[in-house]
Design goal:
Elements: H1 4-15, E1 16-17, E2 27-32, H2 40-43, E3 53-58, H3 75-90, E4 95-100, H4 102-118, E5 124-128, H5 149-159, H6 164-167, H7 170-188, E6 202-208, E7 227-232, H8 242-260
Parallel strand pairs: 2-3, 2-4, 4-5, 5-6, 6-7
Antiparallel strand pairs: 1-3
Helix pairs in contact: 1-3, 3-4
């Protein structure tokens, strides 16, 4: 019979994908994927960072090695699972969060949960292509489950950046669309009430010059730390452009090494 510790470790490995381990790292960077996304894109970032920073990416239920698990239906469910998986590996080391699109909101909510319940907080929160949760506009859209496949595909095309190989391949669409719909449904049913106390860490916001996220500056409402913003060429998925990805990775590396790693 497995011990509680081994069960805990197995669960952490299910949720937290780390492809490039650095046991000697001085800081952990945890990345949170976009709606419909998996963990591997950001987990692969680990090979581009100095060994002083270990990179992991969150693997949500219903995808990759967790395809047999049901999708999460509420933000509270997601935050509780992620927090429980992260606690064993974040107790004794500084950490930072990075999230893109939906991942930005999940990253913030996880950070807030850890601070309120465990007195743990990221040293820095990096958000990308996302309005803050108190400016969430997904609830104003028709339910994703009431949309036709054609309407959903148009919604995805308007956001930009989803590879054509997915949109034009029926087999890939059959895998992708249920994941995307579950994630959007989660956002549409998420209501955020700003707490009396928010974060105190600094926040850096990245976004594309051609995208529609219009309330990025409102992230300043959610921390007593400083907030900086950078716009990079492109649409909602500007960060898949290699030069933009390099800029973000270099920026985060410099920021974290200068400020938090001796």
């Amino acid at each position: 019979m497995a011990s509680n510790k081994s069960v805990e470790e197995m669960r952490t490995k299910q949720v937290v994908n780390c492809l490039y381990r650095h046991p000697e790292a001085s800081l952990k960077l945890i990345c949170f994927p976009w709606a419909g996304g998996g963990s591997n894109h950001f987990a692969k970032w680990g090979k581009h960072f100095h060994h002083s920073i270990e990179v992991s990416s969150i693997r949500l239920p219903g995808r990759e090695s967790r395809t047999k698990e049901p999708f999460a239906t509420t933000m509270d469910q997601i935050i509780a699972e992620i927090s429980n998986a992260l606690l064993p590996i974040l107790q004794d080391i500084p950490f930072a969060f990075f999230g893109h699109s939906m991942g930005s909101n999940i990253a913030f909510m996880t950070a807030l949960h850890l601070k309120e319940n465990y007195k743990l907080q990221p040293v820095h929160l990096f958000v990308s292509s996302a309005n803050p949760p108190h400016k969430n506009k997904f609830s104003s859209y028709p339910s994703v489950f009431s949309m036709s496949e054609e309407q959903i595909l148009q919604f995805i095309v308007n956001a930009g950046g989803t590879p054509k190989m997915i949109l034009e391949n029926k087999e890939l669409l059959e895998i992708f669309l249920p994941i995307f719909k579950a994630d959007v449904h989660l956002l549409q049913n998420f209501t955020f009430v700003k707490p009396a106390k928010t974060l105190s860490c600094d926040i850096t916001c990245f976004s594309g010059t051609e995208e529609k996220a219009s309330e990025i500056e409102a992230w300043k409402d959610l921390t007593s730390g400083s907030v900086n913003s950078y716009k990079l060429p492109g649409d909602h998925f500007y960060l898949t452009n290699p030069s933009n990805e390099t800029f973000i990775i270099n920026y985060m590396t410099k920021c974290l090494q200068v400020s938090y790693i001796s």
